[in-house]
Amino acid sequence: MQQASKPPRPSMGVLNLPEGEKKFLLTRHAPAEKLRFFVKHYWIVEWDLSGQPSYQQDVLPNPCVNMVVEHRKTAIFGVSPVKYSHLLEGKGKVFGVKFKPGGFYPFLKSPVSKLTGQSIGTLDILGIAPRQLEDNLLSLPGTEDMIRVMDTLLLGRLPNQDPNVVVLNELIDQIISHRELTTVKQLCQYAQMSMRTLQRAFNQYVGVSPKWVIQLYRLQNAAELLDYGNAPPLPELAAELGYFDQSHFIRDFKAIIGITPEEYIRRCHQRQNLEAL
After folding, report:
1. CA gap 16, 7 in Å, rounded
2. In the chain, which end has fewer C-beta atoms inside a 10 angstrom radius, N or C?
3. Buried b vs exposed e over 16-51: b needs ≥16 C-beta within 10 Å?
4. Which residues contact 259 (CB under 8 A, 6 or more apart)?
5. CA-only gyration radius of the chain, Å
6. Per-residue pLDDT of the chain (277 residues; tens, 9 = 90+)
């Protein structure tokens, strides 16, 4: 399968990041070496909107579980099936752990699909209650101190490495890298798995179906093409992405991106016109 040329992907699913960076600081950090099999990265968001209006940041879904440490909102969140938003007000800080696809399963030891669209506390996973975790982590002045605390907590609960996590990450990398991959049948052929085996693995380890993951990244690809003015007419674009019905493409695009393709195009044109002034 030949890799299709494409423009750069959006910044890890954070929509309109250039505008957001005027409101907050987002940094990403590597975990301890022994955790990198399970954890993609740590992320920290800090903001100070004192005396300013609140700001809503939209984030696209992704096939990863996130642990979010935030004042009175700390929890472990399963994959969100739709775009979600975070309201920033006043002054604050959030520390997050983004697990690799399938990387949370060895900690949970039960199907990750039970967590999809849901959240759980930190006590069973880390042995520490959410309130105590907030007090221990968010009170620290330095980034390295916070990373050290989280490394220690996760290393203290480190499960055995599961080879299926590697397989599933390879498959998802294949989906991301090859825009022409639009069906579960194609992925089954690449993986040399039956459809039932593949679906069961995604359900158990990732929490969502392989069809949903393919759809997610193909719709992100559509947004990229629209961003850069490289997209064909919408009916052709829908067909290229594996849709036989343009109305289904529009519905799914809105569910993932938050607006219709037509509205997305209008916003791109408005942004380009402003940049040209």
Report:
1. 16
2. C
3. eeeebeebbebeeeebeeebebbbbbbbbbebeeee
4. 267
5. 20
6. 444 444 444 445 676 666 777 888 889 999 999 999 999 999 999 999 999 999 888 888 899 999 999 999 999 999 998 878 888 999 999 999 999 999 999 999 999 999 999 999 999 999 999 999 999 999 998 999 999 999 999 999 999 999 999 999 999 999 999 988 989 999 999 999 999 999 999 999 999 999 999 999 988 888 878 876 778 889 998 888 888 888 989 988 888 888 899 988 887 777 666 555 5
DSSP letter at 202? I
Give the whole-angstrom CA distance, residue 271 versus residue 277.
10
Identify which of 108, 68, 61 has the alpha carbon closest to the alpha carbon of residue 204. Answer: 108
Q: Are 44 and 112 in contact (CB under 8 A)?
A: no
Residue 173 CA to residue 186 CA, distance in Å, equals 14
Beta bridge partners of 48: 91
Q: How far apart are CA 171 and CA 165, in angstroms?
A: 10
**Cα–Cα separations (whole angstroms), residue 86 to 36, 67, 94, 146, 204:** 27, 15, 11, 22, 28
Instruction: Report residue 125 as tokens.
Output: 């996973």
Q: Does pTM surpass 0.70?
A: yes
Please choose, from the candidates 223, 243, 232, the residue with its C-alpha nearest in 3D space to the C-alpha of residue 182. 243
DSSP class of 69: E
Q: Tokens 């750069």 appear where?
A: 8
